[in-house]
Amino acid sequence: MRFPAYRARRLRERQGWRRLVQETTLSPSDFIYPMFITPGSRVRQEISSLPGQYHLSADMAVEEVKDVADHGIPAVLLFGLPESKDAVGREAYSDVGAVQQAIRGMKKAVPDLLVITDVCLCEYTDHGHCGVVEGEHIANDATLDLLCRTALSHVEAGADMVAPSDMMDGRVQAIRASLDGKGYAQIPIMAYAAKYASTFYGPFREAVQSAPQFGDRRSYQMAPPNAREALREVRLDIEEGADIVMIKPALPYLDIIARARQTTDLPLAAYNVSGEYAMIKAAAANGWLDEPRAILEALTSIKRAGADMILTYHAKEAVRLLPTLDW
Ligand code: PBG
Description:
The protein is 38% helix and 19% strand.
């Protein structure tokens, strides 16, 4: 393959060749669109830390998912905000919580759209941690019961899949058992399997006011330098019954996505988190990046690394941009 016998540029010279040899392709079916559900009605308020994303009350969220479905996107991921926060996140598992109401409305209005719910307590607790607090300690096993109740309340409202993001040990197994026990053996679980203690969640925490009021999340989320540990987390969640495993964040962890891809044949998801989105938006707003190309290049890299599906705030705009892009 020595020069001049092999000239790599031969197949780069023309658009037709470039299209033929393209190895990775994005399509609307790759995306899951995250949404923020807030109490009340007729609420549609832009989130300052996530330009282009909105706090939506259940009624407005139902309107929104019609648009998501029209984009050809197969699924949404719901986060909820409570009326008021407390020590044990009661509204997370309330039958009449904003998320539970939104699920019912969505399943009625657009039955084919898959409604996935984030299962966690941090948006609902006044201390902002993802579990029950005992002193300065986040109690693992005492949290499991509340996570199971939350997952169950989502499924009873009609959720198609639950996605625990809390990072407590054993929660996939606990949720699997409680769903099975209530006759929901058919409902799959997407595990946030390797979730890092990342600074790239900043804009999300501002959006749901879930920054921990003391300490940080390092006692339950993973340390960024660790890769083998991520593979162990993936393996554990699979053993506990996960149907889809997720790596989060995505762009700073493409190596983890690629390695996870080689260690499991289960579907693999990657979460292109709020900070990854906000960086592109901020740079584009300053005129420093060509926004459409930056979005599609970033999402393509996540797919190329091995993700089968991408949770991304860019989902709708990416679908609109796809036909405009020639690599
Ligand atoms: C809840 C949760 C978080 C995100 C998803 N689920 C925040 C956190 O762990 O602090 C982050 C999503 C994003 O940044 O887009 N545990």
